[in-house]
Design a protein that fits this description.
The protein has helices at about 15-35, 90-100, 115-120, 150-160, 180-200, 215-225, and strands spanning about 45-50, 55, 75, 80-85, 105-110, 140, 165-170, 170-175. The protein is α+β, with helices and mostly antiparallel strands. β7 (about 165-170) and β8 form a beta hairpin. InterPro entries: Aldolase_class_II_sugar_metab (IPR050197), Aldolase_II/adducin_N (IPR001303), Aldolase_II/adducin_N_sf (IPR036409). Pfam families: Aldolase_II.
């Protein structure tokens, strides 16, 4: 008989349970934040965070404000559910593709309005702001594929080459980072840059000034050391 998903009380040491419980709490908080900040509507979008070889993910079709500590949902890197009983997000192939092929510890996917609008117009977001450097360079648009498919996962991996964010054509955004906070911040920055581009490009008779590759590289290098060296 195939292994069944288990809960945190089954064959999981106390230390591991505590780490997973904290990660789940942070994941739920991040998912709720995407709704509060209007980056998604209802249960659209999804979030994942990696704990060792375990990937915790938001479940499919469950409002984020209803998720509780006992709803923890986790899969291994092959997609086999090993924690919880709720069905994982339908976008699991996309999340697992990123976790398997990058150094991502957290992934955030949204349907942010301005970013999705840009995904219908361009194949790459023009570098209108130096925060482009924080995402590795101009953000590419992954060609459209049906949600939840391996084709979409392949398309987004191509778009993510050398980047920590991409747009999904006629769909939304995907970003990743070392933490949920970093992945979320990249999502918010991407949506803001898309809003900026749409605003500047809409001015009749004017063309937005774009940054050069060298300017983006310099900004990226400077941003890599941004913030406090030691917050403690």
């Amino acid at each position: 008989m195939a292994d069944q998903p288990r809960d945190l009380d089954d064959n999981t040491c106390d230390l591991r349970k505590g780490e997973i419980a904290r990660a789940w709490e942070q994941l739920v908080a991040t998912a709720r934040r995407t709704v509060a900040d209007r980056l998604v509507v209802g249960t659209s979008g999804n979030v994942s965070v990696r704990v060792g070889d375990l990937v915790l993910v938001t479940p499919s079709g469950v409002p984020y404000d209803r998720l509780a500590p006992g709803d923890v949902t986790g899969v291994d890197l092959d997609g086999r559910q090993v924690l919880g009983t709720l069905t994982p997000t339908s976008e699991l192939p996309m999340h697992l593709a990123v976790h398997r092929t990058t150094d991502a510890r957290a992934v955030v996917h949204t349907h942010a309005v301005h970013a999705t609008a840009v995904s219908t117009l361009l194949t790459e977001l023009p570098p209108v702001h130096y925060m482009t450097g924080a995402l590795g360079g101009p953000v590419r648009v992954a060609p459209y594929a049906t949600y939840g498919t391996e084709e979409l996962a392949r398309n987004l991996l191509d778009a993510l080459t050398g980047r920590t964010a991409c747009l999904l054509q006629n769909h939304g955004t995907l970003t990743y980072g070392a933490t949920l906070d970093q992945a979320y911040d990249r999502t918010a920055q991407l949506e803001w840059m898309c809003h900026l581009w749409l605003t500047a490009a809409s001015v009749p008779g004017r063309t937005p000034n774009l940054l050069t590759e060298e300017q983006i590289r310099e900004a990226g290098e400077k941003l890599s050391g941004y913030g406090q060296r030691d917050a403690r």
